[in-house]
Amino acid sequence: MNELIIGSHVSFKKGTQLVGSVNEALSYGANTFMFYTGAPQNTKREKIDLDLTKEAQKIMKENNIDINNVIIHAPYIINLANTSNMDFSCQFLSEELKRAEELGINKIVLHPGSHVGCGEQEGLKNIIFGLNKVLAKDTKTKICLETMAGKGSELGINFEQLKFIIDNVTFSDKIMVCLDTCHINDAGYDIRDFDKVLDQFDKIIGLNKLACIHINDSKNDINAHKDRHENIGLGTLGFDNIINIIYNPLLKDVPKILETPYVSLDDESKERLYPPYKFEIEMIRNKKNNLNLMKEIRSFYK
Ligand code: FE
Ligand code: FE
Ligand code: ZN
User: Fold this and answer.
1) Cα separation of 192 and 251, whole Å?
2) Over 102-164, what HEC string results?
3) In angstroms, what CA-CA distances link 112 with 2, 73, 162?
4) Domains of the chain
5) Are 33 and 69 a contacting pair, CB within 8 Å?
6) How much distance in Å is there from the Cα of 146 to the middle of ligand 1?
7) 115 C-alpha to ligand 3 centroid (Å)
8) CA of 151 to the centre of ligand 3 (A)
9) pTM score, two decimals?
10) Ligand 3 centroid vs 181 CA: distance in angstroms?
11) Best exposed site among 52, 113, 181, 277 by fewest CB in 10 Å?
């Protein structure tokens, strides 16, 4: 099968849990999705409901969604790179691994962390320490370290740092990588020459470690170290470069996940925002830039 594996970030709500997430993904015309098991900025988590999980897995089967392509994103309050947060971060990450297993999902994307002053080397060592603390021989879920933009004191901002972490974790077979197109642009990689970027990735980390790609345009120029996502075709990466990444034959089995910003109904009212994913997935499938993207999204939700 050569079908494009494409989806977006979706919600995981109290009461409907994974059933709600799958149905949201289907409403966008997606065949995969990614979600936080609760609010990304806090630690409140509802117990995973077995009946809802089974129902969701049934819906996935009926709709040809391979659960192996579905991804959890760990909350950003986890920071393994600085010791001040270590105990909490490890405990919460362990619980996330358990929740993933209960949901039958085998990949968790994790931001490697920010060193917050202790320095790059110390920060990388802390991340390795933390990962070694949460991973065990029988851990079924893979932790996918995300490539970061280099905002503040973020780590994981180049392939070398990620490789260093992978090489020094005991169960390194359980570590993979999530490539974010906005982040690598902001970190200084020139995605206009994506073949070269992928070649570097392969030489340093190995393409077999690439578990997921976050597809985002960027509001900022290359090397800006900003991390502000933009809707597809409206940013500095541009539609053609993004299509070139999505349809790269070397990446055909890697799930592609959109994390582009929600859209307001007009330029003034910013309090109600609507998901762009149905429209962006459509233009990706058509391989045709939609110059009326904002207009169409707005009239759809009006
Ligand atoms: Fe992320
Ligand atoms: Fe991302
Ligand atoms: Zn980002």
Assistant:
1) 16
2) HHCCCEEEECCCECCCCCHHHHHHHHHHHHHHHCCCCCCCEEEEECCCCCCCECCCCHHHHHH
3) 32, 12, 8
4) 6-301 (3.20.20.150)
5) no
6) 6
7) 17
8) 10
9) 0.97
10) 9
11) 52
Ligand 1 centroid to 138 CA: how many Å? Answer: 25
Grouping H, G, I as helix, E, B as strand and the rest as coil, residue 180 is strand
Compute, in angstroms, the gap from residue 224 CA to the centroid of ligand 2.
Answer: 16
Residue with tokens 């990588």: 177
pLDDT digit string, tens, across residues 34-67: 999 998 888 889 999 999 999 999 999 999 999 9
Neighbours of ion ligand 2 (CB under 5 A): 180, 214
Kindly indicate the confidence band of residue 283, based on its pLDDT and cuts at 50, 70 and 90.
Answer: very high
User: Do residues 157 and 120 lie in contact, with contact meaning Cβ atoms separated by under 8 Å?
Assistant: no
Three-state DSSP class for 51?
helix
Ligand 1 center–CA 5 separation, angstroms: 19
Q: SS3 for 194? A: helix
284, 242, 234, 282: which is closest to 261 by C-alpha? 234
The string of pLDDT tens digits covering residues 56-98 is 999 999 999 999 999 999 999 999 999 999 999 999 999 999 9
For the chain, the average pLDDT equals 96
Question: Which ligand has the shortest distance to the CA of 180?
Answer: 2
pLDDT digits (tens, 9 = 90+) for 102-154: 999 999 999 999 999 999 999 999 999 999 999 999 999 999 999 999 999 99
